[in-house]
Amino acid sequence: MSEVRIRPRQVLVLIIVFIFVLMMVHRNGKHTCQGPEYLQAMYSQSQANKLPKIYAITPTYARPAQKAELTRLSHLFMLVPNLHWIIIEDSNTTTSLVRNVLLRAGLEKRFTQLNIKTPTEFKIKGKDPNWIKPRGVEQRNLALAWLRAHADVDHHAVVFFMDDDNSYSVELFAEMMKIKPGRVGVWPVGLVGGLMVEKPLLDEDNKVIGFNAAWRPERPFPIDMAAFAISLDLFIKYPQAVFSYEVQRGYQESEILRHLATRDQLQPLANNCRDVLVWHTRTEKTKLSSEEALIKQGKRSDEGMQV
User: Fold this and answer.
1) Do you know which Pfam families this protein is assigned to (predicted)?
2) 99 labelled ligand-binding
3) Which of 214, 259, 261 is nearest to 239 (CA)?
4) What is the DSSP secondary structure assignment for residue 263, as one 8-state letter?
């Protein structure tokens, strides 16, 4: 039997090939995405640093379902690489419960946790003593103040008011990345306003000419908070754009948009407003009658836990 000899040059070539294969496997395992095309494109653009940042503003408040709803949203942030979450608690301090949700999702460098309490006094001009201040006004305005002070205004970014009880498709955030500077992206929202879907109405040139809203259609912008996202440069250009207690219920969307854009600046997205990628869902009020009975006995089912 003849003896097979491997020359040093052959060994070197084999080592180089082996190292190259390892590098390719590592690169593919780390950066590729096996999801739908829009998600693959998102990750591809993220590697090239071409994605606009999306600032998602979420007011939240303590309630039994808070952690569950924030956990659901945090899983979206795991999938969208360019999201920065500004989460504002309606409380006198930030809480460990909210922070733990963010950290557990691996979002250490991708969130800003703020807090401000909604005032309880009823000193707004002309308001009935039984009038309740709407949630989210103080919190969203604090987030806008943070953005104007800290956001990188030299790079295109998008601002989205992301309530914690809605249901969002990841594809919606891929659509937001198409929003141009100086524009407001709009799209349909499912299960809102007494309709299966509220949506912008477009003409043959795909320009927004109206809305199909059934509730208060006379509003300047009769759409839901989840129905639009705004180019960051508009908030920098118009620092007076904030939410207000001085407007009627259901007019907060119109209040913020009237400062920033006309209908001509609305950019229809989601397949020219034919696809529904967000739903105005609400969590059923948690029933805790058995828990209340335990509390009367000085006990709790969640003793030492964050549920």
Assistant:
1) Glyco_transf_43 (PF03360)
2) no
3) 259
4) G
The active-site residue, picked from 171, 253, 255, 291, is: 253
User: Is 32 annotated to bind ligand?
Assistant: no
What's the CA gap between 175 and 186, in Å, rounded?
10
| Distance spanning both ends of the chain, measured CA to CA | 72
Name the stretches of the chain with pLDDT < 70.
1-7, 10-11, 21-22, 24-34, 48, 121-133
Q: Is 292 noted as a catalytic residue in this protein?
A: no
d(CA 305, CA 188): 39
CA distance 285 to 161: 23
Please check if 72 is assigned to a binding site. no
- Name the DSSP class of 81: T
pTM: 0.84
**pLDDT tens-digit profile of 148-192?**
999 999 999 999 999 999 999 999 999 999 999 999 999 999 999
Class of the domain covering 52-283? alpha beta
